[in-house]
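Re: your question about Glycosyltransferase family 4 protein

S., sorry for the slow reply, the queue was backed up all week. Below is exactly what I fed in.
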Amino acid sequence: MYDYLIITHIPAFYKVNLYNELAKRLKIFVIFISSDTSEKRSNNFSSVNDVLFDYEVLYQGNFQTRKIFKNILAIQTILSRVKFKKILVSGWDLPEFWYIAFMSKKGKNCLALESTVFESSYKGLKGFIKKIFLSRISTVFASGSLHYDLLKALKFQGEVKVTNGVGIINKPEFIKTQKKFSGRFLYIGRIVDIKNLKFIVEIFNAMPNFTLTIIGVGEQQEFLQSISNKNIIFRGAVENKFMGNEFAKNDVFILPSLIEPWGLVVEEALYFGLPVLVSDRCGSSELIKNGINGFVFDPANKNSLTQIIRNFDDTLLQNLCSNADSYDINAKDIQQISSYL
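Result:
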C-alpha cells in the first residue's frame, strides 16, 4: 500500500526533486496528467528520466492538448487497482482533480495548494465553487502564508500544513565570487501578461546605464522586444543546466509578477547568491527581507522600484549578496519534506 497517491500536472523538475526526496521516506505513486507543457522557460523543464518512485503518465504530449475524458477514465482504472492511505491532488483547477475529490473518500483527500489570496477569488460564485471543492478535502498542504490566508478567507475547517515551498530546485555546485555592481538585472520566466514585464521594460527604458536580461519565451515576447531599448536583452529559452551561468553574469534578480502562486526562481536566485527584487504579489516574497537579501515592491509603483534600482552600488550589492548567500535553502527544503511525513 502506498502512503500517498499523488496527482499533478506534469513532471516538472522541481516536483520530481520533491517526490524523489519523499520517496526516500515514504512509498508514493505519482500520476502525471501530461508529459510536458507548451508554457515553460526551458526545453528540459519536465522529464521522468531521474524519477525514484512509481509513476504513470496519462498523456504523452503537451498538457494543453490532452484529452480530459480519456484522462479521467485512466484515473478511474488506477484508483481501482492502486491501494493508498492518502491521495494528494495538486490544485482545484482541473476536471481530473474534481473527479478525484468526489470519487475518493474525504478522509483520504489532500490538496497541495499553490494559489494565493491575491490571484484566487474567494468571494461570489468562484469562492462558492472553491468551498465545494474544499468540502471534500481533509488536509491542505499550503505553500506559504499567502496561501494559508486564502484558506482562512474560504473558511476551511480541515487540517492545514504549511510547506514553505512548491518543490525543490536543482542545486549544482558553483564557484562563489564577490560581485561588484555592474548594473545587470535578470528576469527568468514566461513572457506573458501576468508577469508584468512591460512594467520593468518601461523602467529600464528610462535607465540606459542599467541592463535587463530577459530569459524565457511567451506570447508577449514580440511585443516587448518592439518597445525595448538596446539595454534590454531577450535571450529566449535557456536549459536548466545553464541557469547557474546566467545568475553568475548578473547582479540582481527581479520578479515583477502581478500574479505568482510561488515563484521558485526566487529560491534559485538566492541559492546562487543573488539578491532579489520581488513583487509583493508573489508567494515566495516571504523569503525576501527588505534591505537584507533584497526588496519587496508594489508591482504597480514604478517610482518606488526605480528608486530601489538607482540606490544600488557596490556596498549595497555586496551586503545583500552576503545575506542571500547565507540563506539556508536546505533547511527550508527539509521543512518542506517534513510537512508530508
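The first strand starts at residue 2 and ends at 8. The CA atoms of residues 119 and 204 lie 26 Å apart.

Happy to talk it through on Thursday.
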